[in-house]
Amino acid sequence: MKKRNKGNIADDSPIRRILIVTGHDALLASLRDLVNLESDLTVGGEAADLTGARLILGGDHLDLAIVDRLVCPSIGFPEQMVFPMKPKMPLILMAMDNELAQIRSALTSGVRGFVAKQDLAQELIAAIRDVLDGQRYFSRELLVGISADVRARILAGDTSDWNE
Amino acid sequence: MTSVTKRQHSELAPLGNMAWLAERLFVEPPFLLALIDPTLHYVRISRSFAEILGREVTYFPGRSLVKHGFATRHKTVIQKALDNGQTQVLTNWTITAPDQVTKTSGYWQWTIVPLHGTEGRVCGLLLVGHDIMERRLLESEVIEAAARERREVSLEFRDDIGQVLAAIGVKAKILELKLEDQQLTGAQEARELRDLATEVLVAHRRIAHMLYPVDLEAGGFVANLRRLAEDTKQLYGVSCRLTAPDREPNLEPVQAVRIHAIVKKAIEYSVREAGARDLAIEFSVNPGQYIVKVTHDGKAYERTGAIRGYRMINFHAHTIGGMITVKGCKGQLVTFTGLFPRMLGDES
Asked: Alpha-carbon distance A96 to B225, whole Å?
């Protein structure tokens, strides 16, 4: 498959390895194809659940993980890291629900990006790049209607004042 | 044979004595009884009814039934029996005693029978109350079974079909990018296909949530209420406090989801329709029931039918055997109160 280069990525820039974790084969295949289209990204690992993902992370170097919310139902309840052995691993959660409580739960679990499933096609690659650059990324739709103050706190990853 | 018949007659003799019969009925009835005069004051009530109201039977004669077992809204139905001389039925009555702030979880149905005097005029009412708690629980069980089924359908719908739709959206995006890169025609169609997949996915998510909000099962009931209070503050910029026990109650998942939905609807109404700026959510556990209150400082409602979402609130309550009341007059705080029977015991 020919890789895409959108022009703003240097040819010698390192190829970033992505781990995809979802239990759904069709979604996994689609995401693999989407990521592999980009010249600076490649899928370096695939797992159907968190146990498999943790095994892969124990052995391989990966730059970022995209995790399906459905493989980690207990995320954020209570504050529980998705990958406790690699707490700094950049992580993007893809989820069907987009309530504020879900975002907060995700933040408390070390998630740096949150993409609603209906926005995957449009926003996943942008989210990967932002998170790899050390920023946070949240689906545009998630932040609609939220006050500027809360939006700023979400983007800063601040969860401290959210709980009484 | 003759002697047996005679004995039966002698044993049955008291039944001919109406005073004796009435005495037995009022002392040991398997139901609640009350005799009311045309001014809606008690003439006499059964011991079983007096016990439920927490008084001696002698306390009631001469007292108005309003505020002594019945509320003003019940009076309308009772008065109707008096006015038109026809039997009326009062369903889903719960006990309102003079010193009781809360109500018991029992549900009763009253049959209000007009008593006609010799001239044919209504000279009083006989109120007969039957315990319908069991019937309500059976109804709840049927509705709950349907809710469980909806939950399963919702999970299947959300987790499986949702994934496929997301995959279709991503595939369409890949096609769009490839066609664009190769400068082939069809990229626009691929984009439209992707947009359609997104639209279907959004609708699908909404339907799955309407079928059953599965996400509310995670995290615990009180923790979810706390989040709801916090979200209310953040999203609407209002004050919202939660008072609840620290310990998570042992609620049925279906019950937890329904009560949460009721509180959320009550909050939405309070802020959006009634313009509330200060809300208080209270959750407490009593023996036999859960009590949820949402109090706000917004506009008082004119009638419950005018409250947007009230039918849905009532539906949620009914599905778990609960009851909702709304109280509040102009210039006062408005309170939604929900009473729900405890379906599971606590592990303590």
From this structure: 21
